[in-house]
From TrEMBL, chains A, B:
Pfam family, one: NAD_synthase
The family this protein is said to belong to: In the C-terminal section; belongs to the NAD synthetase family.
Organism from which the protein derives: Oerskovia enterophila
Listed name of the protein: Glutamine-dependent NAD(+) synthetase
Keyword field: ATP-binding, Ligase, NAD, Nucleotide-binding
Binding residues annotated for ATP, in chain numbering: 322-329
Binding site for deamido-NAD(+): 399, 428, 545
UniProt-annotated binding residues for L-glutamine: 136, 198, 204
Ranges where the record places region Disordered: 470-497
Length: 577, 577
């Protein structure tokens, strides 16, 4: 029995773009064939994109996906590539509703499944439906899919390959347990293939490889883990595909945040005489290994990947945003320039009478460094027109300035077709240090919505240092990083007039929002009770306002942490004890 | 064995407002006791409000709910009402994660449950955890709760009462099946009590009573169905509690859309000799029956209930909206006046150079009829200030006017504390006949987001006729109902310049959006292919734009139909075949 060459195609798909995903599958299969691969594996729900949410329930969409799988098979056969085994993800059907409550709810008789199909010689040979349907955090799979119940082992070039999907390996007692045994001839499986759509979270790489190593030991065979890459809506997929051996060692791995074809040879099977225990254990070869990224680089590239995917997949080529001279808009513009090119970024300085000279200078300097289209649009004439009619004071006046800037950006977007993006960061959005419908919160995407203020500074410094290391000009003006943050909506205003220092604020926010701790737990951590009360009150109030006006960007860690769904009207406030 | 007097307390709770819900439970228990009831039953999740979504995952919230249940028990005992059995809904805990995937996801060790508790003589006597957790449409219960596995039958005044929660009766094979048999003494249960949080859908009343009748026949005992009432976020609960006998007849019922205490006597048990079959079957008494509402009245009152709940539960006392003189803002203002009183409604006419005289007259006339605070705020000075700087043309200019109106409303809201509401209707939002961030789409709540344009006219006519019948002045000026609809953003513009006639449009929208039909099914219904292509293209494009800018009001039938979650970036378009 010869070696089996496998190729893991870590590609970037787009939800709903069946034709485009099909073309990509054909292209990468040709590449894998060119590398001599016997089998090429694609990520979870390759044909349909992932996550498809309620699109799975539309019958015409499912019909199109089924036709596309047959097209892939036929096309490869026509091209003489029918001998390459292709394993890809798509939407299947369970035939009947899986649970009585779904039947009672009027769900369609043919509930969809999250399916892997095996294509060979012009045909769809076998199918596997994902058993474990995650329905927590950002996942809604139990909502839309029926679970599979059967395991799948296919023979490829005489080797037994088990196939499962993503969440199936995240629990003990899953379909893996049925793959660990030996068949009648005394053989177990030779390889476990896992198709994944695993969203990026900080530091998740090790969790994945550790978990896969446990499964590899259980089935006594290598685990090949292929993950998707790219930004999709508010999720970021980081790739980082790998093969891990039954002894827990990572044998080969793809880099994060880029498409990649990872080729690896499963060695020939040793003879069954080895089962006596006298022969040496199989030695698995080691391929290329992607070096780990610095934590700040990892987060920075996750932000770039998310934004680039959002812009491109929504059919935009350019972005417009307000440049205040502050750190948030400076970092957001830099991310945008790295995502789609500085020449496709329009930065608009919209000074008011409260804007400092250095702010305007810093905004201009930033745009120049990025090669962005820079414009200055004073807001005084419009603010004066509103004030002549409405005579607003205090916060209402501050908000008016902020909203006039929002209207300017939307008008430029309407006229020229750029996507408006919002530079609001997680800390200020969490405590409500923002105006609904202002230039910091309107728009289609808020690249920093999951990045707290402390991290904003860290990412800016990392990006500038990376430029210096590469012999380039650092993109972000030093004074944008070092000056005290201010919204500049009234004279001499700084963020710390109304907020605790950001390093402290961010620690409390992390405990209260990300870890859902209550006041008692926060105090037990040793935080000052006054700070805890202030932050909890601000967050509760801001979250309430945001839910009342369901139009601001979502804040809570969609990409990097837990999704949270909360009732709009909840009167719940963290009790004082 | 004497009669058992039961009271169904159809009350309006608020999510998160544990203290307020507790007070209401005490108040209605006193009322029930005053009526001589032995048992009072409250709706699903009474103490916590419903639906609580991810709030269930916050430990400090759960602790507060558990303390409140003990408080209710102790307080009733102190008041000498410990002999009244109280059945109410709250959040429980399952002790351990129910499924391995949840355990793997890092879910808390004590997953919450959707619980009913039985309180008597100062103690929580028994608990039942909902078995069937709906996770489709507007429901997310599998996401947050662990399912119960045990049935519950409690003895109240010597009678066997089975208790289940909402979805538990919606399927065959649920916990009901274990309640249908006879116990060792040859008795089955005497009554099945169902606690509900069943959202309003048009015509759902009959579905509920038919279903409950089936379960009553199965357990051979009456089913007492208590439902919550009131608006909560984007859901409307209509009440309509009832008791149905095992022969399928509705024995008594509460009206929809109001709080109500429905008292009914379960007759004394006939002797066991009856089991010989020779004795007559139990005769169940008939109480008051609420007459059914006219379909337009039902929808109208659902809209009023939803809006009233949203305003009050979010802590507002007044509303501001733009009045264009058109039918949508006229109906929205009338709904608002019915929800919170005309004196609490601020209507702002914001004429531009394209506004017709009759529009301004109609807006003023409407405000006068409603007793609303009426203001005129021309937008020309602000539009001219923007145009002096930006020189916009075409759609960008139209959108500018619309957005300036949005800023005016938000400024008035900031200054005076009113909630901004949006008058956009379902048809125009569905086809994108609206501007992002304009006066028709900004705000916290869009009362007509689930009402198509044909229905808008029908509701307006119904409301005016109802006023005439009551000898009152019809609130909506006749010309707002009869004139051709127009956005008045350019000279002579009407909706039908760019849209099919609304009656036809609404039929296609219903099939395409509500029933998720594809192009093939639409053509098979006999719709003109040209109209189908136009509508499908408009909807796909509008939905895409709306998802790109996740800030407009949600459109698809949250209150009256299916919730739909779709990926923002989906490239899927209904194919031409």
């Amino acid at each position: 029995m010869a070696e089996l060459r496998i190729a893991l195609a870590q590609i970037d798909t787009c939800v709903g773009a069946i034709d485009q995903n099909t073309a990509k599958i054909l292209e990468w299969t040709r590449r894998a064939a060119g590398e001599g691969a016997h089998v090429v594996a694609f990520p979870e729900m390759t044909l349909t994109g992932y996550p498809i949410e309620d699109l799975a329930l539309r019958a015409s969409f499912r019909r199109a996906a089924w036709a596309a799988a047959a097209d892939v098979a036929a096309q490869l056969e026509r091209e003489g590539l029918g001998g390459v085994t292709v394993v890809l993800g798509t939407v299947g059907t369970a035939g009947t509703p899986d649970t009585p409550e779904r039947a009672a709810s009027g769900a369609p008789a043919d509930l969809p499944t999250n399916r892997a199909v095996v294509i060979q010689h012009g045909e769809v040979l076998a199918a596997y439906d994902k058993h474990h349907l995650p329905n927590y955090g950002v996942f809604d799979e139990f909502r839309i899919f029926a679970p599979g119940t059967e395991p799948l082992v296919v023979e490829i070039e005489g080797r037994a390959v088990g196939i499962v999907i993503c969440e199936d390996i995240w629990q003990d007692g899953g379909p893996i347990t049925t793959l660990g045994g030996l068949d009648e001839a005394g053989h177990g499986i030779d390889l476990l293939l896992v198709l994944n759509g695993s969203p990026y979270e900080e530091g998740k790489g090790h969790v994945r490889t550790d978990l896969a190593a446990r499964r590899a030991a259980e089935v006594d065979a290598p685990v090949a883990y292929v993950n998707m890459v790219g930004g999709q809506d508010d999720l970021v997929f980081d790739g980082g595909s790998f093969v891990v051996g039954p002894d827990g060692s990572v044998l080969t791995s793809s880099p994060q945040f880029v498409e990649d074809l990872l080729v690896w040879d499963l060695p020939a099977r040793t003879s069954s005489a080895d089962l006596t225990g006298t022969a040496p254990a199989t030695v698995y070869p080691t391929g290329r290994i992607a070096p780990p990224l610095h934590p700040d680089e990892e987060v920075y590239r996750a932000c770039v990947t998310g934004l680039a995917g959002y812009v491109r997949k929504n059919g935009f080529r350019s972005i417009v945003l307000g440049l205040s001279g502050g750190i948030d808009s400076a970092l957001t513009a830099t991310l945008a320039a790295d995502a789609i090119g500085g020449q496709n970024v329009v930065g608009v300085s919209m000074p008011s009478s409260y804007s400092s000279e250095h702010s305007k200078d810093d905004a201009a300097d930033l745009a120049k460094r990025l090669g962005a289209d820079y414009r200055v649009q004073p807001i005084a004439p419009m603010v004066e027109a509103f004030q002549g009619e409405l005579a607003l004071e205090g916060v209402a006046e501050e908000n008016l300035q902020a909203r006039v800037r929002g209207v300017v950006l939307m008008a430029i977007s309407n006229r020229e077709g750029h996507l408006v993006i919002a530079p609001g960061n997680k800390s200020e959005l969490a405590v409500g240090y923002a105006t609904i419908y202002d230039a910091g919160s309107i728009g289609g995407y808020a690249p920093l919505k999951d990045v707290d203020k402390s991290r904003v500074w860290a990412l800016a410094r990392w990006r500038n240092d990376a430029a210096l290391d590469a012999g380039e000009i650092p993109p972000i003006p030093e004074s944008s990083i070092t000056k005290p943050p201010s919204a500049e909506l009234r004279p001499g205003q700084t963020d710390q007039d109304s907020l605790p220092p950001y390093d402290l604020l961010d620690e409390v926010l992390d405990a209260y929002i990300e870890h859902a701790e209550g006041r008692a737990e926060l105090l037990a951590r040793g935080f000052d009770p006054e700070v805890v009360d202030k932050v909890v009150t601000l967050v509760d109030r801001a979250e309430w306002k945001r839910r009342q006006y369901p139009l601001g960007p979502k804040v809570t860690s969609l990409a990097f942490g837990r999704d949270r769904r909360l009732p709009v009207t909840s009167r719940w406030r963290e009790p004082a004890e």
